Every structure is written in C-alpha cells, then in structure tokens.
Amino acid sequence: MYTLEETIAKDIFDGVVYPWEVLSKIKDFIVALGNTLPEEVYEKKGDNVWIARSADVSPSACINGPAIIDEEAQIRHCAFIRGSAIVGKGAVVGNSTELKNVILFNKVQVPHYNYVGDSILGYKAHMGAGSITSNVKSDKTLVVVRAGDEKLETGLKKFGAMLGDQVEVGCNSVLNPGTVIGKHANVYPTSMVRGFIPADSIYKRQGEIAAKY
How far apart are CA 101 and CA 41, in angstroms? Predict the structure, then answer.
C-alpha cells in the first residue's frame, strides 16, 4: 500500500504485519525521532513540535505536540493539529482541517475542511473538500477490518482509515472506521465507504466497485 521511502516515519513500520499496528506507536515515535532531527533543517517549537524551516505555516494554525512538520509542507489558515501527527514533505493541510494521531506521507493533500484521525495516508493521497475519516464506531466496540468474508480484529477502539499511495477520495465522503483503500483507487464524491477497497479500482457505491484498467 505504501512507498515507505516517501515518509520520514519509515522506521515505524519495521516488523508490523498490518499498517494500523503503528497507530498506537505514533506519539512516542515522534518524540524519539524529533530529538534526532538536525537543527539546521528543523526548528523545535513548544512542547515536542518540530517544524521544518522550509515549511509554510500560517500564523492562524494551531499545532499541538508531539508533531513533526516536514520540509516544504503547507499548514494553512486555521488548520488544527491536535497532536501525534507527522505531516510529510510537500504535504498540504488546509483551511479548518483537523488532524489527530496520523501519518501523512509526502505530498498528501487534505486541503479543505477535512477531519483525519487515527489514520495513515500514503504518498500523494488526496481527500476532497469535506471528506472525513470516522475513527470511532457508534457502538464504541473495537474496530474490525472486513475484506470480503474475512474479518481482521484490530484490537483498536479508534481507527479511521488506511489510504494507499495516490488514493483519491471525492468531496464530502465519509470513510467509516476500519476502511482500507489500496493504491491508486478512486472514491466517488459523497460516498459512504467501509471495508476494503482493492488497489486500482473505482468505488462508486456500496457493492459497486469497478476495476480501473
């Protein structure tokens, strides 16, 4: 799903079978990694917040630690980073977008009114305006990833979505807890998505997924 060379957080994936296994490790990983970052490239601000000197951060943005904002990232007007967030090189976190416990690979775009929580977004993944990850089930039970008839117990109460490289999510879509979307897949606007969406596919609606090629 992921090109690991396209994130400063590559090492967090060592030894894991499923990518969601790293969600509980993000906070401590950021603190450990942040303290090794070169001061000529990254400036430490506040409590465990490291921001690349080449990043463009709006004065109205709120960034709580621990967090790493990588080189040439854009943190735009009124973005809210609640903590435990890694924003990759050249990524865009836009107007009124909220992040919590996430890894955004390089060149990810969440540019307009997005909520991304307890999720991992791969290289060049893009979420359209108003699209969000829902990270807690309504009945508060543990999240299960469903792929056809297979059910994978995650042991997690909070788990949003895993988006592979170059996934495109249409505007105003909701990704339900435990959604996993493979590389290069597209999701139609205003979709309600759950379960596993294969790579190189187009999600049109529940039960209707077409191959791209």
Answer: 23
